[in-house]
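# step 3/5: fold
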Amino acid sequence: MTSPASSRPLADIGVTGLAVMGANIARNLARHGHTVALHNRSAGRLDELLDKHGSEGTFIGARSIEDFVAALKRPRRALIMVQAGAATDAVIDQLAAAMEPGDIIIDGGNALYTDTQRREKTLRERGIHFVGAGISGGEEGALNGPSIMPGGSRESYESVGPLLESIAAIVDDTPCCTYIGPDGAGHYVKMVHNGIEYADMQLIGEAYQLMSGAAGLSAKDSAAVFAEWNKGVLESYLIEITADVLAHTDAATGQPLVDVVVDAAGQKGTGRWTVKSALDLGIPVTGIAEAVFARAVSGARELRTAAKELAGSPLAATVAEVFPGLTIETFVDDIHAALYASKVVAYAQGFDQLAAGSREYGWDLTLGDLATIWRGGCIIRAQFLGRIRDAYAANPELPSLLLDPYFRDAVESAAASWRRVVTVAAQLGVPVPGFSSALAYYDSVRADRLPAALIQGLRDYFGAHTYERIDKPGHFHTLWSGDRSEITI
């Protein structure tokens, strides 16, 4: 309900930007006993929220930024839930102009972490705290308990942390929210979370493509497989909803919905940001990169139409036709193993990037804490994350998840099936860039020798870039255009 202006209390926190995510976060806060100030650029959404949900708690509606700020307790805490980019900057400028030193602005959108670093620095110089909070869980999570990744000063977290923890998802009595680190750390972690999400969905998509195109299973039968998989080590939100989507029938045509949806996947940028950052850091996140590129290929409609006549393996063939000794049941089990092993690689790469980003920016991220808060609320929530938390609890300096005993055994036991799936897919012409790149990464990191030795020789030949030797220290160059003797650089 909205309190009369003459008697209403000051709000514990304010939310500006009342599209679905912002409205649901505001309702979540109110349901947990917090008085919430509300503001939206257009008053219609404010009125709609109060009309439909005003009875869920104590709300204070504000028609202007000035009234919105005036309705907040000191230190004022204002959560921005607007589109990332210029719109966020505009709201920040308006809020900062009406605020005082010690007040706190929280950006709950999917902001680029470098923007968050810039904003935090600018506002810090004015004495205002800025918190970049990654929020995952979609509309349902925002209302019923998301995973929240807040970055900023420790002092600001002491003020906003209890509020955010109160509305976060709870797993094993632990809120899926914790202090991440300074300046852009929260949004960086959310960015990599989304990158991992890209990889996870791509791998699930490839598993379905193999079931449908190679094993010949119907969407309904594939749904049953995913529902069964959700009872074991692959248990996760994404596997659960995959079963739901595949089981859904289109009302207009009577066909499985998945068969009438255009096969071009959209993206909003966080996956690309993740890959760009990984490239800058020199961290191979091949699983995430392949997922981003796969979406780009899916959207290249004209190219795909023009390329349909290209020669190659028969895209319509099935496992039974080409590999008569391989039963459908065995092949589906192989897909399960390949999906799990590839998932381990994708998460290992994502956590490698988080560690590298932490070193680069001095954030001191605690990787086990991230796995802990991702166990509930967020899109990649899964049983699997408990294993990752345990891995970092056992060894906080773990060089890679692939070296944790549990994950090492899991991947090694899946290797034969994983290789068989990639081989079958290649023979049948079924694209599995996620599965195959994950396997290539796994083989690369465990290889005794890589072709990089030849690459270094080539670089030295045409550009005198030098090379190192395995038998003595230093940097060397061969006089390729001279007598081909070696010199020390």
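# step 4/5: annotate
The longest helix spans residues 328-361.
# step 5/5: archive (pending)
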